[in-house]
Amino acid sequence: MQKFDEMYTRLPYEFFTHGAQIRDHYKIYDEWLARQPGDMMAKRREEAEMIFRRVGITFAVYGDKDEDGAGTERLIPFDLIPRIVPANEWRMLEAGLAQRVNALNRFLHDIYHDQDILKAGHIPREQIEQNAQFRPQMIGVDVPNQVYSQISGIDLVRAPDASGKGEYYVLEDNLRVPSGVSYMLEDRKMMMRLFPDLFNKHRVAPIAHYPDLLLETLRESSPATTAEPTVVVLTPGMYNSAYFEHAFLAQQMGVELVEGQDLFCKDNFCYMRTTRGPQRVDVIYRRVDDDFLDPTVFRPSSTLGCAGLLEVYKAGHVSICNGVGTGVADDKSIYPYVPKMIEFYLGEKPILNNVPTYMCRNKDDLAYVLANMKDLVVKEVHGAGGYGMLVGPAATKAEVEDFKKAVMANPSGYIAQPTLSLSSCPTFVESGIAPRHIDLRPYVLSGKSVQMVPGGLTRVALKEGSLVVNSSQGGGTKDTWVLEDDRSAAVHAAQSQTQSSTEPDAS
């Protein structure tokens, strides 16, 4: 098996310095990989696919039907080469993520209460009140701990800076029903099963306690009317693309997985039907969008939620996590204002920067975007999953022209960003080890305090040259290793040196 420095020579920001020297926190893994037989990785990948298929770790692809017309189930491709993050780097990310999520929760409380940031003129009022995700029903509603987004999935990318190491940027804030954490946990279990010797060589910070932290956060978010809250996970059902994750998290937390038909509201409380009769529900970890939560308030045709749920929620007799109306804070048209939120609410400078963003609703920005679309990434403000976007450098002239027409027809529905040269990571593909672009989604939990496990879900664009990492667009996942301290690489290197010098000569 060849070393990284023999095979990986492009976009070195994750693993190489400007001088093409492998970074300290990857040296042990590089040396280990160089000693492996050439067919080892392929055999391990086959084993991983077999186990994932047996366990049922799949996702459904909307619009992708089999011959019977049913939605197809796929494995999310899993890459065997981990992404390794040094401890000092993670400490910076952790501080920046906590800062950002705190500010976003302060913003959500503000817009549904005093609206100070709007009165100060930092955000145009119409961008909030005319936003499709703004819920006027939530005005004046108090929620436990003043936290609206208990589970936040913040998408980070790294692009080159003057040092060549690369700077992290926040690409998106996912505050509604962020998914993917089950793959983070299962990827780690798989790596520990396939490569136990690697965990003896690296001090990798654990993540297996995430379900415990999640349950703690949900219980901390319960109404004050109960000391022993009953928590449930509300799923749209088995045909949802993330159903595996809903069932997985319910099982890991030891709580009930319910559908809308399992719940009912009576006398301003919420109950679930059980074989022993009705049981009061205090906290709902919902994986159902706002529009489907309560047919008496939102979409009348919805069968995924529970009639009367919003009234119980507004009365403070049940908590919904994440809160109703959080979507306004992760809309792409609001994203450019997050740095201002941090300064306004916290009196601090942002630790993590946004990607520079053009708002097509602004005349000057629109003119620039239309003139330079072939060099930009243009996104619908409500788009998700890699859909509703144009990657200008990878698009045809016809695609660019069609997108221009769409933007001109509805400028306020689009933003644009420069095409960042995203960092890439060695990835095991059919041709061997090759660089592929990656992002990182850490999961930030907000209850009475902000907590997170070290790392997150690294998503990888498996198509050569692609910048789209979403699983629905052919992306895969990697295990993310955060080293427990800055000395671990040096300590293990010294231990390896000592061990090799004391071992008898094999010849």
From TrEMBL:
<feature type="region of interest" description="Disordered">
    <location>
        <begin position="486"/>
        <end position="507"/>
    </location>
</feature>
<dbReference type="Pfam" id="PF14403">
    <property type="entry name" value="CP_ATPgrasp_2"/>
</dbReference>
<dbReference type="InterPro" id="IPR016450">
    <property type="entry name" value="UCP005522"/>
</dbReference>
<protein>
    <recommendedName>
        <fullName>Circularly permuted ATP-grasp type 2 domain-containing protein</fullName>
    </recommendedName>
</protein>
<dbReference type="InterPro" id="IPR051680">
    <property type="entry name" value="ATP-dep_Glu-Cys_Ligase-2"/>
</dbReference>
<dbReference type="InterPro" id="IPR025841">
    <property type="entry name" value="CP_ATPgrasp_2"/>
</dbReference>
<feature type="domain" description="Circularly permuted ATP-grasp type 2">
    <location>
        <begin position="82"/>
        <end position="461"/>
    </location>
</feature>
<feature type="compositionally biased region" description="Polar residues">
    <location>
        <begin position="494"/>
        <end position="507"/>
    </location>
</feature>
